[in-house]
Amino acid sequence: MKLVVDIQKLGHRGMGIARYGGKVILVPLTAPGDRVEVKITCSHRDYDEAELIRVINSSPLRREPPCPYFGHCGGCQLQHLHFHYQERLKEELFREMLIHQGEVDESRIEGILSPSNEFEYRSHIDLHIRWSGKPLLGFMTWRGKRIVPIDRCLLALPKIQNFLIETRKMLEKIKAVRVKKVTISGDNPGDNVTLVLWSSKPLSRKACKLLKEMTAEIPFLRGIYILNRRGKSP
Predict the structure, then answer these.
(1) How many CA atoms, within 13 angstroms, populate the side-chain half-sphere of residue 50?
(2) Whole-model pTM?
(3) What's 26's domain CATH number?
(4) In which band, very low, low, confident or very high, does the pLDDT at 58 lie, cut at 50, 70 and 90?
């Protein structure tokens, strides 16, 4: 069913909240003040979930998302909003959580500390892998049904972004088709990285030997860890 609704505010995970016929409708990728056409995708007793079809009237809080993957990749939910509003929204949601769930006195809650840079702050990313002859690394879609391959993530530290290419080369060289996910972590201020390979089964001795050799060739790589059902291998 298709509807035209007005987005009143944003809630958890940046979901737009509208009302139609006395029922709450949750719509991703929207902004307060938007008038949008949506399609109901899932109905519950107290609320409905919908997908955005088109924006009829845009909110002044909107902007063009800086990331080319936004809207498909599920790693971010707020890049279509001006950054000053993103900060305000996060502060409001966190404040409500502290008051209502943590029972913290509101007078004890201070304002949010604004970062110096909107991007390049995330020191840890988890990427899923789809093998199609070569490894394709990316985040899951909004609904988590498929992987969106990426070449970079604007939110990640620069060293992590640069290491994405090296990670792809490593996996391709050792033909690690059993590796389904990788975690790349950077230290502060982001001069070094650590790589974790999540494998369904232990890697071969040859693959582990190649990984050790490649680790020695990359000065900013502190180490590689392989996690599988049998435990951890350095």
Answers:
(1) 28
(2) 0.84
(3) 2.40.50.140
(4) very high
